[in-house]
Amino acid sequence: MKKLLAAVLIAIFSISALTSCGQGLSRFSVTYTDVFDTVTVITAYAKSEAVFNKAANAAHDELLRLHKLYDIYNEYDGITNLATLNRLCGESAQPVGKDIEILIKSGLEYAALTDGKLNIAAGNLTCLWHDCIANGTGLPTDEALIKAKEHISYKSVKLENGTLSFDDPKIKLDVGATAKGYAAERAAAVLEENGISDYLINAGGNVVSKGKKPDGEWKIGIQDPAKQTGEYRFIVAVKDKSVVTSGSYERFFEYGGKRYSHIIDLEKLYPSDRYVSVTVLCGSSADGDALSTALFCMSVSDGKALLKQKNAEALWIYENGEYEKTDGFKIYE
Predict the structure, then answer these.
(1) Structure pTM?
(2) Fold that domain 11-69+178-330 belongs to in CATH
(3) Which of 17, 63, 76, 208 has a Cα at 20 to 30 A from 82?
């Protein structure tokens, strides 16, 4: 069995060869590989390399902080993170900070909107798959999966006045569907606090765009899952938008000659195989992250209904190469 492969660049952006613009700004880029188990690229236009480095380093520090805070597998000295809360909240209510509170509120909202298809409380089930993959012990047994499903009710999660508790002591939170998107938004905010207004952040397929390039809007390439050479299937032009792709072709594991997605269908208890990729275009990277994961486990018709509630657009690509898209998605092509 192969371990779960980290996504490199699910949505790849194309960048103009221009290095400066009329405002005296130059283009700079940096790549990080130590946050959220993926590759993160920050590209921006700044007055100098020193200005860019200061802003990018501050954004990276924020990503590192949130990476530790949202970790459900490891605890760190001096930090009450999700791993700590998963251990303690079944016994007694625990105070949570703003960054965790925001993520849990969003997770509970999406759990209700999707009737549990996207479920922040599904940690028992998702961790079972993670542990079997990481340890190389094969697929989880049906008995273990059914038992884990008994303890994934998001209604057991209580968040009141900054305090978190679990009615079911065996509940485990998993924010994998929203953490990277929120973290990318926070990194974007830090760039702006440091004087950067034209930038693109690509956190392993979670793309946040702001402002523009000297020659116009940012162009985001959506990979053709059938190609192994990184060819684009679609290209969208965006400004002040997020483009988020979830794909089984970039992040997966193999067992018995079969490839399994990293996204678990909580009704089937197995990795979802409806699509090979789902791309969401919206105003928020956090929403895009949640929506792309939720849509991976929903029919296109149900997904379109959810997208309308969030004022978002989407593209679905099937294993046979066929695709569907919302009417609004076409506007950005």
Answers:
(1) 0.89
(2) T-fold (3.10.520)
(3) 208
